[in-house]
Amino acid sequence: MGTIAAIHEKLVSKQVSCTELTKAYLKEIENANGELNAYVCVTPDEALQTAAAVDKKIAAGEALGLLEGVPMTLKDNMSTKGIDTTCCSKILTGYKPIFDATVWELLKAQNAVMLGKTNMDEFAMGSSCENSCFGGAMNPFDVNHVAGGSSGGVASAVGGNIAAYGLGSDTGGSIRQPASFCGVVGLKPTYGAVSRYGLIAYASSLDQIGPITKSVEDASIVFDAIAKQDKRDSTSLGAVGGETYSKLTNDIKGMKIGIAREYLDGVRDDVKAAVLDAAKVYESLGAEIVYFDLPVLKFALPVYYIIACAEASSNLGRYDGIRYGYKTAHYTGTHDMICRTRSEGFGEEVKRRILLGTYVLSAGYYDAYYKKATDLRGTIIKAFNDAFAHCDVILAPTVPMTAFEKGHATSDPIETYLTDICTVPVNIAGLPGVSVPCGFNEKGVPIGMQLIGKSFGEATILNAAYQYQQAAPEKFTDTKWGVKL
Amino acid sequence: MKYELVSGFETHIELSTKTKIFCGCTTQFGGEPNTHCCPVCIGLPGTLPVLNREVVRYAIKAGLAVHGKIAEIAKMDRKNYCYPDLAKAYQISQLYAPLIIGGYIELSNGRRIRLHHIHIEEDAGKLIHRHGDTYVDYNRGGVPLIEIVSEPDIRSIDEAKEYVERLQQVMRWVGISDCKMQEGSMRCDVNISVRPQGSEAFGTRTEIKNMNSITNIARAMEYEYDRQVDLLESGGKVVQETLRFDDATGTTSSMRSKEDAHDYRYFRDPDLVTINVPRYEVEQLRAEMPELPDEKLERYTDDYGIPEKDAALLTKYRNISEYFDKAIEGVKSPKTVSNFIIGQIFRRVETEADKEVFAVATTPAQLNELVKLLDSGKIRNNLAKSTLEKMLDTGKSAADFISESDMGGLDDNALLELCKNAVAGNPKAVEDFKNGKAKAIKALVGNVMKNSRGKADAQAAEKKIIELINA
Description:
The complex is a heterodimer of chains A (about 475) and B (about 475). Helix content of chain A is about 40%, strand content about 15%. Chain A has 17 helices and 13 strands. Chain A has helices spanning about 5-10, 20-35, 45-60, 100-110, 150-160, 175-180, 215-225, 260-265, 270-285, 295-315, 335-345, 350-360, 365-385, 410, 415-420, 425-430, 460-470; strands spanning about 40, 70-75, 115-120, 140, 140-145, 165-170, 185-190, 210-215, 255-260, 290, 395, 435-440, 445-450. An eleven-stranded mixed sheet of chain A has the order 1-3-2-6-8-7-12-13-11-9-10, with helices on both faces. A two-stranded antiparallel sheet of chain A has the order 4-5. In chain A, a hairpin with a 2-residue loop joins strand 4 (about 140) and strand 5 (about 140-145). The model of chain A has no long low-confidence stretch (mean pLDDT about 95). The model of chain B has no long low-confidence stretch (mean pLDDT about 95). Chain B has three domains: about 5-285, no CATH class; about 290-405, no CATH class; about 410-470, Orthogonal Bundle (Arc Repressor Mutant, subunit A), CATH 1.10.10.410. The longest helix of chain B is centred in the middle third of the chain and has 20 residues, at about 215-235. In chain B, strands 1, 2, 6, 7, 8, 11, 12, 13, 14 and 15 form a ten-stranded mixed sheet that branches. Chain B has a three-stranded antiparallel sheet with strand order 5-4-16, with no helix packed on it. A two-stranded antiparallel sheet of chain B has the order 3-17. The chains are: A alpha/beta (about 475), B alpha+beta (about 475). At the A-B interface, helix 10 of A face strand 16 of B.
């Protein structure tokens, strides 16, 4: 598998040059992207330039960092200087930022080879990636299924071996859900662990950047590289829980793994069975499974959609056609220009959430919706804190089902909202969660499970995830696509 | 029926911090359009605000200056509205947990105008209309503001004017803003209503937006008071609305009615963390606060016996009062210093702008030296006055103009000698005095003063001359 460690090994042992490797990835993007639609922008010049610099270092016999020269991708909502950053929205057509997101600055400094920007639901709003103005990214296990969303492009690219890893963003499951659909690993860090500077906001109090990778080690390596406190983000605290990589191999004997019964309600049988099988694997590794109740989970979805839409309605107000991006062709004055630009520039789902968010913040409704949701958010945080008094990690399905078939999600938005039930609680509570492959359905499409940790407990959940990966390597299978190392 | 005016003010003041409230850009006024900008203050996608802590300190100073309570925890909220000069389509402000609560401004009539709160927020950019097109300049976007919201405690136009002047005075005094209304660094929204004299209930109010001079505030309020009274007298009703004032016609006109009022959809800004204000920080700032104009005025009138009118002049600007405070160190009569400043120095510092700077050739130490010569009786008032003029002309010290022989006063023998000469040399005046013309004594005293070159004590001389005549 084209993991970071495997690529690093090939580079330092000079089995392949970074330029050759990068060219191989670029070629596979050409071959696969027609069907996967993972990339919305490919940047060969920048990629080859970095590759050449890495080759020079190798030739000079200099030591290479783990991420150096490894081809990767960024979700298209992360600001990249001089490179199109569109959030897969018509309204940001042609927008080339004048600054880099902090995460990209950090990885660039390590000579990460960025191959391009990847597909997503418009402004990260969606669960299938089909809300993209470029059309949806497809599932590398079966292209009749979606890659999931909103970071569908990254998951599809990593699952399809046309990027070794990528960064996604997770507001209500947008890293974990597509990772689960595409049979890869996706880590949503604790809120505040990774800087949001340069991440185009959907819902600021919930958004968090994290890695989508082929293995748990890779998720750990990338997380350690990007979890840095940033003065430009007041909510950023960095890796309060310390680095994670050296702790992957810790023995998990005696670790208490909690299963909240409510997380298994309404979950499809094959998914439930796969998660309960994983629990058995943990028992065989010496962990203890404890069942408990988390009744507040029933509030999670309404709380999420109220808070996320409220913040989105404010965050997306700036797209008015005046300073950057799309602007309507015909108008009669400023007000008309703004109305037309927004009506033409935003897609259906984005408009739906802006309207919902505007409504819940309006005079006369604020207390009934937004205030109540923020109060309940406190209740949910407390319930998780209480739960962690009895267990070290929580095991749950990532999604109550497997990847949707093409076109299914867009036909019923409310039904699609319901599929976020297992992922949103983690965002509401600001906790870390990692999705790990744990099986396949009858069509061979992956099933994912989720390990949820205490605040800044990334090391613990990655440790548990790694131990599972070592015990059940058959769940981590590769697809037919892309670069074969 | 007589109607009482009821008014409350919302006053925006630009803080004079070096950098903007949420980024490192300069706050300097002017500059080529869009040159004092960065990705943060033009709200580019993905940027985040980081609070400039200096803004919090400036606002705390403002709060202390008006006797407000400094909150221990404050939060930033978003005020959402769409206008091209507002790059993010929301203004970061405070609604639910402002930094300063309460406070008051005391007027010269003893009434206190209570303050509801003071909050911090960012300014918006500016639209420039030119050649039939509209341009946006974001230089001002993100400049820190405080908004001072008063209770509806103002009862007359004079009180309104004094309220604004006092705010201006005290905010300049503590050094947080230059409060230049003409440059927009101080702007007022005036809420105004009328009610029958003696009535407790408030009338329906209107709000006049963005007033940029005290003269216009008075004009607008006068117009609006008359308009509302006329409406009520003729059986009409005041409609709650937002008005603009037209400088040229001196009238107000409607901007928007209550029905069209903005719904700002305020909510906590998730990008900014809670502002904790530790008490030691407040105490440190309190300790660094200069003595405030009210406190100084009280000291000048109560401790030094300076008339209130003069004390008000001395405390109008911080530089004048500091000059005065330095000049009175160790003098017997601070009132003499006050008279020199108001009587002589002010004639050379005529405009308000010059008074605020108060750049005077004579240092307070030099004035102090002069007054001490007067105190010790070494020189007399006339000489001191003429010397001060020379000092103000040249910047030199008193010693440069007063010779040793001018000083040292007159001993009794010398005074007696001069008085004898005056009596002997002015028989007519002596005769007049003897004949009951009391005023004639002045000529004799004048003679003594002249011949002593101002060194003689006039009262002592008069006493001596009368003794000589009656002897």
